Amino acid sequence: KNYYGGNWASFSFSGLLSWIKENQQKTDISDECEDWRKLILENEEVISLSKKDKTIQHVEDFCFGDQDSAEDVEEAGALPKLPVFGASAAEGVAQESEKECPPMESALPEVESREPEKATGTEPASAVEGNDTEITSENESSHSTTLGESAPELGKTEAAPSEISAQEPKKITYSQIVREGRRFNIDLVSKLLYSRGLLIDLLIKSNVSRYAEFKNATRILAFREGKVEQVPCSRADVFNSRQLSMVEKRMLMKFLTFCLDYEQHPDEYQDYENSTFAQFLTTRKLTPSLQHFILHSIAMVSETDCSTLEGLQATKKFLQCLGRYGNTPFLFPLYGQGEIPQCFCRMCAVFGGIYCLRHSVQCLVVDKESGRCKAIVDHFGQRISANYFIVEDSYLSESICTNVCYRQISRAVLITDQSVLNTDSEQQVSILTVPPVDLGAPAVCVIELCSSTMTCMKDTYLVHLTCPSTKTAREDLEPVVRKLFNLNTEKEAENEEPEKPRVLWAVYFNMRDSSGVDKNSYDGLPSNVYVCSGPDSALGNDCAVKQAETIFQEMFPTEEFCPAPPNPEDIIYDEDEIPPEESGFSNSPDTKPEPSTEESSSRDSTAVKKDDNEE
């Protein structure tokens, strides 16, 4: 790979266009040199690995602006194109890719390479506008919120009123998107972090959180009767809501209070354990609008496949996450979901780990007698020995995966000119679940990101759509896109009322979901080779965290998984080792640049600490 994170990665706009082109080309990579086979001994055999990532299919991209006007436009901040004399085509491609990627020698991704809109390279990412959250593990007092309280001031999300909310959206051209391409950080997989989920707990425990900053998701939305509306979540939201009558407010609060400790009242749900959650809701004297809010926007479960117990568990999880860091249960990492794997790479690099980009692997070398994997051979013909090998599913060849049945995820990414629900504030991070359009079709999860998340340029929104696949991604998701957005071109849209946000650019693709595959399904894998999956279709990250911990415990059953790292001053180095500070990879939180007094007073930023009662 030329980038960190595999299918968890984030790209600039030009980087994503390169990724699209790469995945639309179906040609396989042939071995130019077979010299590496001379490294294989008589008592050894090889397991060849796949030369091309086949986890992405049906990639279709569409531009609804004038592409011709962007032909000669270069991305701002990109290096000028230099003539290549006597270089092969492959070398030319490598030179182009180096503009987008950190060098292979650096195991530590550079945080400063991405600059906020109004910040210099020495300022922290949180120096820009927006309500950002830095998760740390210091034992300082923190407010906690139960259902009976509104979100604490510590995590409260307040954005400045928009001065142009009543005006028409600014016209954004395709050439502007290309020019401002480095403002975009577009995730291949769309997820949010539950504030009390396994990943947040792991980030705090391992101190990896020092390398990332987060923004609260500000709104939970619902799509009902052809309209998008905001869903009240906390007690304050419920009683301030103008959508609900006073009777409905009491009904909703009574049901949500029951869900928080439903295990203590089995008599109220045990008769419906074999029913769906949707059927159970009809017995609770809830109005149709309340049933819709709970099913699709709070529990966020399927209307037909989710049991009563699963629905109650999902609702309780949602409610327990309210108020820890904000008025919704969710956090989003600044610069995109792709920052999370890079954060773990940074921590790994500080303590000697090596991450090699553009360094492919030819095969696994297996000892015939013991059946264990002894080494790998890379594309340079270099043999690297190890005791354990962890392989992402996409690297395994078809001969190993003959008995594997994969699921698929349908994905769409849109760049739009305004929000699906305009309010006084432009800086909103919203999550919306759109119920199935047709019977048997899946619900679609929509996450809309504003520019203060550092994922898109000013005056645009980045919209992610995700659902389990039944057809191609475009067939699954375009009906939902048409319900929410205007797909007309720029010239066609000029003669229409701007009722819906206009899509400026879109891409659809299917991604393999290997999260449910059992290791025994792979043919002929040695016992010391462990397979990890790519992203799953769930909103949170619990599956990936559980899988990582399971693999670690199988390899090192007596060791703690992701323990807190030692303080730099407590580390004792050998004489031939270089401390991280001297190598430029400081592990001290004090090295993080501090904003000036003027910057601190001009932004709405939140530092969220670990609760005292969680120690």
UniProtKB/TrEMBL annotation:
Which keywords does UniProt give here? Answer: Cytoplasm, GTPase activation, Transferase
- Compositionally biased residues, Acidic residues: 571-580
Q: Which residues form the RAE1/2 domain?
A: 409-537
One GO term in the molecular function aspect is: GDP-dissociation inhibitor activity
Give the InterPro entries listed for this entry. FAD/NAD-bd_sf (IPR036188), GDP_dissociation_inhibitor (IPR018203), Rab_escort (IPR001738), RAE1_2_domI_C (IPR054420)
Q: Where is this region: Disordered?
A: 91-167, 559-615
Short name of one Pfam family for this protein? Answer: RAE1_2_domI_C
Q: So what family is this one in?
A: Belongs to the Rab GDI family.
Question: What name does the UniProt record give this protein?
Answer: RAE2 geranylgeranyltransferase
Taxonomic lineage per UniProt?
A: Eukaryota, Metazoa, Chordata, Craniata, Vertebrata
Underlying gene: Chml
